[in-house]
Design brief:
The chain has about 260 residues and is α+β, with helices and mostly antiparallel strands. It contains 6 helices and 7 strands; from the N terminus they run ααααβββαββββα. About 45% of the residues lie in helices and about 15% in strands. Strand 4 and strand 5 form a beta hairpin. Helix 1 packs antiparallel against helix 2, helix 1 runs parallel beside helix 3 and helix 2 packs antiparallel against helix 3. The N and C termini lie far apart (about 95 Å).
C-alpha cells in the first residue's frame, strides 16, 4: 500500500480541528468580550469550550500519534500540530486572563471609590411605573428643557426650607443638593442655579429623553479601565423651576403627593 493511499488518523485530525476551534473561540471572545458581557450563559459556555476543547484536542492528538504508526495511518502532522496548538492557546489564555483580570480589579476598585462619593449611584433605577392614573405630566421635564442654567437664583436658606417642607427624612445636605426620603423612596433635590456644579461633582450624568418624552438621568461612572452599569432615574422639576428633583420613585401617586 502506497503512502498516498494511507488513511488519515481520525484521532490526529480530530485533535487538530478541536485545537484550531478552541483558538478561534478564544480570539472571538477577546474581540467581542464587551458585547457578550450581558449574556451570562453564553459566556459560561464559551469559557467551558475555551478551557476544555484544547485539553480534549491534546489527548486525541497524543493518542492519535501513538496509534497512527501501529495502524499504518497518516496524519502525524495533524497530531503534532494538535499537541503544539493547545499549549500556545493556553499560554495566550493565561496572558489574557491575567490582563483582563487586572483591568477588572483596578476598574472595579475605581468604580467603587467613585460610587462612594456619588449622589445617585445608590438609589436604584426606575422600573415599571405604578399608579399611572395620577397625572404627573406637569412635573416631568420636557424634551429641550434647559437644566444647566436658571435666571431664578436660590438662597441656601430658601433651598433648605423647600427641601424640609417636601421630604419626610433628610439623609444628607449641602448648599447645592439635599438627599432624603419621601414614602420610602429616595429623592435628590438640586438647586437649578447650581446644577452644573453638582453635575461636575457627581462624576458624569447625561440627560436624555426616551420615545415617550420622559426625562431620565443616564448615570455612568467612567474610570480608566471600566464603565459602571447605567442607572436610569426619573427627573422632575418644581413648578417654580428653581429646583430639579431626581428620584427612583416609580409610583406616580407618590410623585403627585410630593408636589401637592
Amino acid at each position: 500500500m502506497s503512502e498516498k493511499k494511507k488513511k488519515i488518523s481520525k484521532l490526529c485530525l480530530s485533535g487538530f480541528i478541536l485545537s484550531i476551534l478552541s483558538a478561534v473561540l478564544l480570539i472571538l471572545y477577546v474581540c467581542f468580550s464587551w458585547e457578550l458581557r450581558d449574556y451570562v450563559y453564553l459566556c459560561i459556555i464559551l469559557y467551558a469550550a475555551i478551557a476544555l476543547l484544547p485539553l480534549i484536542g491534546l489527548v486525541l492528538s497524543i493518542v492519535g500519534l501513538a496509534t497512527a504508526g501501529k495502524k499504518g495511518k497518516s496524519g502525524k502532522g495533524f497530531g503534532i500540530a494538535g499537541i503544539i496548538l493547545p499549549n500556545i492557546s493556553a499560554f495566550f489564555a493565561v496572558i489574557i486572563i491575567v490582563f483582563f483580570g487586572s483591568l477588572f480589579l483596578i476598574g472595579n476598585a475605581d468604580m467603587q471609590q467613585s460610587e462612594k462619593h456619588s449622589d445617585v449611584s445608590s438609589m436604584g433605577g426606575v422600573w415599571t411605573p405604578s399608579n399611572t392614573e395620577y397625572d404627573v405630566s406637569q412635573y416631568k421635564i420636557s424634551k429641550g428643557y434647559e437644566l444647566n442654567s436658571s435666571e431664578k437664583p436660590v438662597s441656601e436658606s430658601e433651598f433648605k426650607a423647600y427641601a424640609k417642607g417636601k421630604l419626610q427624612e433628610i439623609t444628607d445636605e449641602s448648599e447645592i443638593r439635599i438627599k432624603g426620603k419621601y414614602q420610602d423612596y429616595n429623592f435628590l433635590i438640586i438647586r437649578r442655579d447650581r446644577f452644573d456644579e453638582w453635575k461636575a461633582g457627581d462624576q458624569l450624568v447625561n440627560i436624555y429623553w426616551d420615545e415617550g418624552g420622559y426625562a431620565m438621568a443616564h448615570y455612568s461612572v467612567l474610570t480608566e479601565f471600566a464603565k459602571a452599569a447605567n442607572l436610569n432615574l426619573a427627573i422632575y422639576k418644581d413648578p417654580s423651576e428653581k429646583y430639579i428633583i431626581i428620584t427612583n420613585c416609580s409610583d406616580y401617586k407618590v410623585i403627585k403627593e410630593l408636589f401637592d
